[in-house]
## 1
Amino acid sequence: MSKEDLDKRPNIPELLGKHGFFFEDACIESIKRNGKWLIETVRYPVEYQTGINTEIDIIAERAGQSVIFECKREDRETKNWIFIRSKDISLDKLVIRTYMGNLMGHDGKLKQWPNWQKSKWKITLNIDIFDSAFCIMPKKKGGNLQANPNPITDTCHQLIMGCCGLISERLSQMRKYMYGTIDTCYIPIIITTAKLSSFSYNVDNITLADGKLSEDGQLKQEKWLIYRWYSTLGILGDVLSSNFAGNSPKVIKDYHKVWDIIVVNSEHLLEFLENFCFELPLIQ
């Protein structure tokens, strides 16, 4: 084979790496080696709704609860995920929301749906909660930087669409095959190569005339964090109506409109896997 032919050969590792294939495998192996997590399945296809399919990168178990991982490879030299916390968001770092806790009767209907105050779980890590996010990245044309929420939103969308599809699938299975008390929590986690940072500022330094911040603010590197993502995605109407009889519309709406997503920088994944632990309270 001539040198010219060699130069024309596709660089398979580079091409696959750009799609995150190798990064996903590395995450799977890290979770396996940790020993505290049980890999249930990987690259699991689910149907969000008729004709709309997606794939969950990793489904694992920890303390009997389901953990849904989305592996997102980003160019860590050019992508920085910045998270901001609203002033009115809860600063309780030890408690975030769960996504499923129910009492199923022998007729296959959910009899009890605990509200958010009764279905919290505790994290043993020092972790902050944020509710706004932007990716600092170069513009496609030119070298100037921009603050674009889409890379983070798209990743959350992919993850939560998979969560909703999986929950819908398992709800249908439970109604068909299982009875009695079932308490399950679904925890969505993003593992990313992107840098993670939090940005804090004093709202008094924002001028109403032009909406600009008159100070630099404070940028802090983060190992991991919780992103409270407000989504239009949710469990589909037919699944809601057939499974959630007797629950108020507000409880159902809150359930599938707000998601607390743990975001972990991949450089700190091993530390996270080793130290992450949570406790579910008794459902009252």
## 2
Amino acid sequence: MSEGKSDKSKVFITFIPLGSHREVVDATRAAEFVEHWSTLLTEEEEEAAVKSLQLSNKSYTVQAADVIAQFFSSINLGQLMDVNLSDIIASLPEEDGLYVLQRLSDVLASQSYPKRLVLSDNALGCKGIEACTSLLQKMSLKELELCNNGLSEESMHRLANLLRDSNSSSIQVIKIANNMSGRGGCEAMAAILRDSISNLKEFMFSGTRADSVGSKMVAQAILDIQPTLSLHSLHLADNVFSGEGAKLLSKSLATCQSLQSLNLRDCCLSDEDDIPDLVEALIQSSCPLQYLDLSGNELTCSPGLKKLISDKTSTLIALRLEENELQSKGVKALVKVLVKGRSKLKELLLGHNECSSKGAQALLDASSTLSLEILGLDGNAIPRTILHQLKETYGTILQEIHENNSDDEDESEEEDEEEHENDSSEAEDIEQEEGEKIDELAKELSKIGIKT
């Protein structure tokens, strides 16, 4: 199972278990894996080196862990860079699961210098973190993933202490999600950012069940480490960044010149109080933003949001605004911005936004201009006739509609309300466009020394 050659004398290979199905691996089955891996090492004409280990999606008994560990201790793993031990102890008694984690961690820590470590989908807790100490404290570690591990506040603090005690600040990518560690977990995460992170490139900290105080701790820590040039992915879904948290986050984003992916889904952001600061920060950074998720924040298509999308039309590839309050007015305004900016957008998700006929019609009218590959409109209130036209026009681009709350009998009343809203929206658009023209003129005049 060769991955490719690094030079003329060495072939890199990946160790993965036999069979893609889920199973409990006992000693006999583990011996089959070992025999297969041994064959991989010897069948190449040139020298082979193990670069990646993927043990995930199978559950290993104590005896299986011993068989595999003995094999690892007998071969050269000096080139091993990527270690994936996710979901390897499911259904095991706690004592057995901890033994498996420690047995594999210890042998891999003694034989290799991994740069990436994935421990997701294992029920770790404090004891599991302790069992993996030898791997977690490797100085070579640059990427760490701990998602869906049941990490409590106490577990997060133990992790922070382990990483700090390793005297390593080389981690550049850290993904910790769906652990529901609350405010205490945020405090521990802030400590990890300050003590164990260097040149942060990717940061995911979502599904924490944190309150505004905890979320603000994380936002402050991000600001403190100043990830100015290196940060290109920031995923902070399901936190509470309203108010002061959003202001701290905005200060950090203003310096993130390389940011390509931003996920602030379900972060309690406000149209009036939070979005303007975030918009100005992202525009100030001049970042090449490609992926933006602001779903679940009860947003309308406010001037700030339109301004951001207009500024990033040349780079945005995916825009997710599900579970907001765009309504038809907002969808129509959004489509107008995308068309005007000759958007290169490939993915647009607008599910559950109370969008009805006018918004859907705007998407129909723009179908030949937009270059979408994915369009999501589930959970809206689109009339059946227009929905049928959307399906015919967009084909497989339109994601499956599971829920559509349209009542065609109420359409005429809806359209009257929308018409009134659209008149107001068009007036706002004209006012905004005039303001933008004045700003552009002022910039041009300042370049030639004329003050306005």
